[in-house]
C-alpha cells in the first residue's frame, strides 16, 4: 500500500482579461445589436469552452498514472480475480464541479473534503471576483494532499469565469466545466455542480452504492411546464448578462422590450441544481442535434436561464424525455410554496433535513454550525480530513485515510437507508412516469 507520490511542479498563475470601459446605451438599434452580439458571444464561449488551456490540473503531472493500490483493476499486465459470488455491481463515478467566489477558499476545500472519493472527478472553480493568489493557494493546497496526488482526480480551473446568479453566464460556466470534465476522464457517469452553499447529507460510499444499482442514463432534475409568474418576470424580459463580456461585476442590464414565448418547443422550468447523466452532458456539449444550441440562444438573454435550460432540453428531446426523474435529490428550505429562492437552513430544520433522504442540501451560510454537526454525526469526518470510506485502510481516528486500498470497495453507512427509501419511492411504478415531463 502506498500513501504518497512526488509533488508536481507549481502551477503558473492564471491569466485574466483587462477591464473594458463602461458602456452607455441610448440608441435602441445599438441596444438590439448588443443583445444579438451577446447571444452570439455566449454560443461562441460555449463552443470554445473545451480548450485545454482554460484549466490547470492540480493533482497530477501529465505523464504520471494513478496509484495502482487505489485502482488495481485498471493496471495493465495484471490479472484481477473478482468475487463471482458478489452481487454488487461496479460502483459508478461522479464528476463534480465545485464553485465559489471571493473569500471562499476555505469553503470550497471543505466541500471538496466532504464529497471526496477516489473514483470521482473534481473540478474546482473560484470565479473572477477571487484574486489570483486565492486560486494559487487553492491549487497548492490540492497538490499538498497525498490522496489527491495518488488518485489524480482533483483539478483547478486557472482561467476563471464570472458567474452571475441571474442571466446566462451560469449556463456558460456550467457547460464550460462539464466540457473540461469530459476531457479529463472518459469513465464518469453523472455530473453534479455544487456551490459553497451546498453540502452532502450522505457519504460518497452511500451515494455511489445506491447509484450503482441505477441505469446510468437517468437524469435527476426538478421540472414543470407550469410557468405562472415566471412568464412575465423570468422569461419575457430581455437582459444583457455582463458576466459574458465584462471582467468586473456590474449591474445586470434590462431592456425595455419584451419577447414572446417560443412555439418551436415547450418551455420547462425547474431548479439550477440537478444530477445529469454523462450521455445527456455529451448531447448538450458535443451532440449533433441542434436543440441544445437553439435553446441556449433563446436563454442567452433571459433571467434565471440555468434553472430553465436543462429541463427544457430534457423534456423536448425524444432521446432523453423518458430518462427524467422529477426530483433532484437536493433538500431546500422553502418555508412557503410561493418562495422563489430557498431560505437559509437553521438548526430547527436539521431533523427534517436528515430524514428527508436527499443526498445534498442547500442554504448553508459561512461557518454554519450545522456543517460541523453534519460532519460529526453523518459524514464522520474530522476537520481538514476527507470522509472515510471503504478505500481507507488506516486505523480509527484522524489518520484513517492516510493508508488506502481498492477504491471500488464501498462501505455504506446508516445514512444510505434514507436515500434508498427516497429512491424507491421515486422509481415506483405509481410515480415515476406520472411525473415525467407532463404538459400542465
UniProtKB/TrEMBL annotation:
Cited Pfam families? Branch
Key words of the record: Glycoprotein, Glycosyltransferase, Membrane, Transferase
**GO cellular component terms, semicolon-separated:** membrane
Q: Which domain of life is it from?
A: Eukaryota
Signal peptide from the UniProt entry: none
What sections of the protein cross the membrane?
none
Q: What is this protein called?
A: Core-2/I-branching beta-1,6-N-acetylglucosaminyltransferase family protein
Q: What species was this sequence derived from?
A: Prunus dulcis (Almond)
